[in-house]
Amino acid sequence: MIPGSSKDHPSFVRSFGYAIEGFITAVRTERNINVMLLVGALTVIAGLVVGLDLTSWCIIAICCGLVIHAELCNTAIEAVVDLATSEMHPLAKRAKDIAAASVYVLSITAAVVGILVFAHALHLI
Ligand SMILES: Nc1ncnc2c1ncn2[C@@H]1O[C@H](COP(=O)(O)OP(=O)(O)OP(=O)(O)O)[C@@H](O)[C@H]1O
């Protein structure tokens, strides 16, 4: 709920609109999200070429969604930290570095899963 707003809660459609607005802002301002969307698009193209099965598509979709989700959360945490302080502060550094680490942990995991899925589809494993 927006502080000071007279309404209890925005409607579902309006909330969804804010979410889309947030996604567009992240895409416009964060280079990493664009890199992730590009990697996701290339993965989909590679999946079409290789002819992934339904289960593999589901795994790839979950991995892509989780990585983009983590980067969106990281971006939001960075914004909140910047709002909280414009000073250099060890806690600000800790929050930003841990949020960034969460993205890298998920990205590396997704990359390993992607390699396994494609290696299996190509009968390499
Ligand atoms: N207020 C602060 N106090 C201390 N260290 C900070 C502060 N702000 C940023 N840092 C350090 O600088 C790094 C980069 O911060 P910045 O806000 O530029 O993130 P970023 O490079 O845009 O991250 P990303 O690439 O994930 O978008 C942080 O990970 C942190 O180590």
Automatic annotation (TrEMBL):
Q: Which UniProt keywords apply?
A: ATP-binding, Cell membrane, Kinase, Lipid biosynthesis, Lipid metabolism, Magnesium, Membrane, Metal-binding, Nucleotide-binding, Phospholipid biosynthesis, Phospholipid metabolism, Transferase, Transmembrane, Transmembrane helix
Question: What's noted on cofactor binding?
Answer: Mn(2+), Zn(2+), Cd(2+) and Co(2+) support activity to lesser extents.
| Annotated binding of ATP, by residue | Y18, E30, E78, E87, M88, H89, K96, D97
Transmembrane stretches, start-end: 33-51, 57-77, 98-122
- Residues the record marks as active site: E71 (proton acceptor)
Tell me its cofactors: Mg(2+)
Q: What Gene Ontology terms describe what this protein does at the molecular function level?
A: ATP binding; kinase activity; metal ion binding
Q: What is one GO biological process annotated to this record?
A: phospholipid biosynthetic process
Q: How does it sit in the membrane?
A: Multi-pass membrane protein
Q: Which Gene3D superfamilies match?
A: 1.10.287.3610
Instruction: Report the sequence similarity comment from the record.
Output: Belongs to the bacterial diacylglycerol kinase family.
> What is the protein named?
Diacylglycerol kinase family protein
